Amino acid sequence: MQRREEPGERGEPGGHRAAGGAGRRSRRHDPRRRERVLDAALDVLVEDGVAGITHRKVAARADVPLGSVTYHFASLTELCAQAFARYVELRTAEYEALFTEVSSREELIDVLVELVRGGPSRDRSAVLGFELHLAALRDPALRALTQEWTRSSRAVLARFTGAGTAARLDALLEGMIMHTLLSTEREPRATTRAAIVQTLGPATGPGTRTPGT
Questions:
Q1: What does the pLDDT read at residue 121?
Q2: The pLDDT value given to residue 30
Q3: CA 68/CA 47 separation, integer angstroms
Q4: Which residues, 6+ apart, have CB-to-CB distance to 212 below 8 Å?
Q5: How many Cβ atoms are within 10 Å of 165's Cβ, its own excluded?
Q6: What is the pLDDT of residue 119?
Q7: Closest by alpha carbon to 18, among 5, 6, 3, 1?
Q8: Which residues, 6+ apart, have CB-to-CB distance to 65 below 8 Å?
Q9: Could you tell me the CATH number of the domain that includes residue 9?
Q10: Using CA atoms, how far apart are residues 19 and 39, in angstroms rounded to an integer?
Q11: Which pLDDT score, from 0 to 100, does residue 19 have?
Q12: 20 to 30 Å CA-CA from 29: which of 76, 133, 136, 149?
């Protein structure tokens, strides 16, 4: 079956100009265009939130014709849902990678402290996560994504702590990350560490086990 061409693939007049730039060359073959549109949508969600996203903003960020965005995503609801699904997929892989080299309780604590204190990439991911949760409060269809993320993150933690402690730790981490994002004063590292250690429980207790056992 012949593939339906996207707007701009043959360089029609107005292709890229609709995305906010004149004179840009149209991409004749762009197999990753849908993926780039979703990544651009995530960038817009970080900057403007669900309330501020538009097809036009996403097209400009992705450097594609406006018609190319609506070709793949007829509605903003569909675009946001698919962008959030991509976020959960990417974040799940990133989260698992954080713990790949963890082989002791102290290493686990160090990773968790850094996760809370974070940096630009962590802040971006956290903003997207909170945007997803806020959107899911109003759109029940998105709650499957929030549940998927919760299950996967707790499953990673449970490999080190057991299911019960993982659930409490996951809730603590989300709260502490939100507090860090919103606070005007950076919390001392020792305070962050003490809260995590307390939630983990005694080093030899049933709530924490040696990774890989």
A1: 83
A2: 74
A3: 22
A4: 103, 159
A5: 21
A6: 81
A7: 6
A8: 6, 7, 8, 14, 15, 16, 18, 19, 26, 59
A9: 1.10.10.60
A10: 16
A11: 44
A12: 76
Instruction: Give pLDDT < 70 ranges for the chain.
Output: 1-29, 204-213
b/e per residue 201-211 (b: at least 16 CB within 10 A): beeeeebbbeb
Both 13 and 50 in one domain: the answer is yes
The encoded tokens of residue 172 equal 């603590």
pLDDT of residue 87: 97
Q: Which residue has the tokens 């079956």?
A: 1
Type of residue at 108: L
The number of CA neighbours under 13 Å toward the Cβ of 143 is: 5
Q: Which two tokens stand for residue 21?
A: 């730039």
Say whether both 88 and 188 belong to one domain.
yes
Copy the structure tokens of residue 12.
Answer: 């029609």
pTM: 0.81
Residue-wise pLDDT tens digits, 116-134: 998 888 899 999 999 999 9
- Residue 97 shares a structural domain with residue 186: yes
Residue 210 lies in domain: 83-213
Place of tokens 């962050």: 192
